[in-house]
Structures are given as C-alpha cells and as structure tokens.
Design a protein that fits this description.
The chain is an alpha/beta fold. It has nine helices and nine strands. Strands 6-5-4-8-7-9 form a six-stranded parallel beta sheet, sandwiched between helices. A three-stranded mixed beta sheet has the order 2-1-3.
C-alpha cells in the first residue's frame, strides 16, 4: 500500500482469492487509478511465488518508471519535436518487447505505449534484451489502447497500423509528420477494433513464403523507413 501511495511503478499485483474488507477495496481502487493489473489467485500460487509471509498480496515492482502519455505529447510539441510513438497491442513476450524497445530508441521513437492488461512486464530479461533501451525510452501504460489512439489523433498524430491484409505498402506512406505506429502480436495481429480506429493500414512487402516477420523485426523495418524519410526532409 505504501508503494502504491508513493507512486512506485508496479507491473502487476496478485491478490489472494476471498480477500474482502476496506483493505481489499482500497487496494483495488489504487490499482485501478494507476492502471495496474490486479489478479485474484489461490493462496497456493502466492506460496509458490514467495516462501515468506505474503499476507495475501504480492506486488511485482517494475524496473523502470511508467510515464503518462498525456505528459509526453505536450513536452514533445513544446520542444518542436515531431512525435513518433509506438503502440503495442498484445505483445507479451519479454524478448520481443525488449527488442522493440531497442529498435525504437535507436531509430528515434519517443515513447512506447502498452495496455495495462496485455503487455510484457518490464523485468530483468526485457531490459537485458533491450540493451538498456528500456531505461532510456519512456513507456506509457494505458487502460485502453483505443482511447490512447483517439488521444493521439486529437493531438494531431496519424495512427498507422501494420496489417497483413492491407493493400498499401509501408514505402507508399508519408511518414515525415507526427506519427504513431500500431503493432500487434505475432499470433493475433492488431485487434480488429483497433484496426478500424487507425487512420491508415499498411503492409511490409515480402518476397519469401514465410507468413510474416517477427514483430520486433517488423518494428525495426518500419522505424527505419520513418527515420529514412525524416532524414531526407
């Protein structure tokens, strides 16, 4: 409770099933306010996670501080920077997440945006895979990617979604303006509801027979094309 009240970044909270009362209610309220996933689990799972006295609740601290998207955008515009934001829908593999963060930081993205309930944790493995990039690029955790897309669009960003069914190719897009790239998981891709909210869908052209690129590789290709176009402006 002290960690929550002090604003410490927390990846998720495990709460023992059956817990009730003011303590449990306050915990749920604070977790909801800070967009922290809270999961009810049997006491046996808590016992497996820690051998100590867990008192019915365990919080997993994040290795870096989450930031607010509504703080990132005004700061970028005040600095006369053309925003480049990467939204990740359902990317839960920590190695893919870390690799995307590495490419994003190297190629000039200003923030990663993830949903609070369907994102890879920022743990030792993801930070290591990112080569430390996760300590340098802001990560914003939001309750809804749909609302985040609307927020970005209202701020003047074009939201472009990677979609294997799209007809327009990546290299046909004008990518020099304020841009947000929406990437989905390798298995499911971007949710249909989010695809409908995007301003444009695109595909990375391929020659081989493999179904698709790894999501972290795709992120690198997309971000490099954005950097290439911006360097030519």
């Amino acid at each position: 409770m002290d960690a929550l009240k002090s604003g410490q970044s927390i990846d998720k909270i495990l709460l023992q099933k059956g817990g009730r009362g003011l303590y449990e209610k306050e915990l749920r309220t604070l977790a909801a306010e800070q967009h922290i996933p809270l999961q009810y689990v049997p006491k046996e799972k808590l016992n497996r996670v820690t051998g100590g006295n867990h008192q019915g609740v365990i919080a997993f601290a994040a290795l870096v501080a989450y930031q607010r998207l509504e703080d990132i955008l005004p700061f970028l515009f005040e600095q006369s920077v053309t925003p480049l934001i990467v939204l990740l829908d359902g990317v839960t593999d920590v190695r893919n997440f870390g690799a995307i963060a590495r490419s994003a930081e190297c190629l000039g993205a200003h923030a990663l945006v993830v949903a609070s309930k369907s994102a890879a944790p920022i743990n030792a493995e993801s930070v290591k895979t990112s080569a430390g990039a996760l300590t340098r690029i802001p990560v914003c955790r939001v309750p809804s990617l749909g609302l985040a897309i609307q927020q970005l669009q209202m701020s003047g960003l074009m939201v472009l979604a990677s979609d294997l069914q799209a007809e327009k190719q990546l290299f046909e897009l004008e990518l020099g303006g304020p841009t947000a790239i929406l990437l989905g998981s390798e298995g499911a891709g971007v949710q249909a509801t989010l695809l409908r909210k995007a301003d444009e869908r695109f595909i990375i052209p391929q020659r081989g027979e493999t179904d698709s690129l790894n999501v972290s590789v795709a992120a690198g290709v997309i971000l490099y094309e954005i950097l290439r176009q911006r360097l030519q402006q």
